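If your schedule permits, I should be very grateful for your opinion on a structural question. What I wish to show you is a protein chain and, alongside it, a tokenised description of its three-dimensional fold. Would you kindly read the sequence against the tokens and tell me how you understand this chain to fold? Here, with my thanks, is the record as I have it:

===
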Amino acid sequence: MALITGGSGGIGYAIAKSFIESGCHVIITGTNVEKLKSCVEKLGDNAKGIQLNLNDLSDLDKKVGEAVGCYGKIDILVNSAGVHSVKSMTDFFNTTQEEFDKIMQVNLKGTYFVSQKIAMYFVENKIKGHILNISSSTGGEPGWSAYRISKQAIENLTLGLAQKLSPYGIIVNGIAPGSTATNLLNYKEGDSIATGDNVIGRMVMPDEIASYAKMLVSELGNMVVGETIYISGGRGKFDIR
């Protein structure tokens, strides 16, 4: 059973769909109740949804308990929830404290404390589970934007969680997608996926990310520990924008 934060978003939804196709039950979270309900209906009988707003972690214990109660167990956590703003991505001089705080709250603090709660659940129940963090190829680029800084931090958190949790048999890794064909980039089905964001010349497809996610949370991924896999056409590694 898998808990996927941000599972009503493009990448999170693709991961949920891929997991279900492999026989996994999933619980997806999101902030928009109607969108969450629609996604669960499309995913089918092996999916459930829970509203979770990472801007307010005061009821996190309750929400994790609710998630565990959906199917009686969680084996996999995918931290896919994330936000950004156009201004904070492009304009250092005019980024506001409010934008900075919101991005850090959801992308970093939310990921940290959801991971903490699920890790505690794994340890207490002797579950050798998997945690997968969805970062971004921008985390490999100079950190002058709040979004990039948050994603750099997620990569370091992934490494740190792997160090702390691997003695309990809990495997932690990350994926750093490049520009992906989702609504976040205003992509609509049928649009061109051509891009100048990487040397390959096209956007990443959500299904590609989902395939790597499925591998990393399976037994095939058990000897990959603390890594962040860049699926970005080279962006963030040798191609810096």
The radius of gyration is 17 Å.
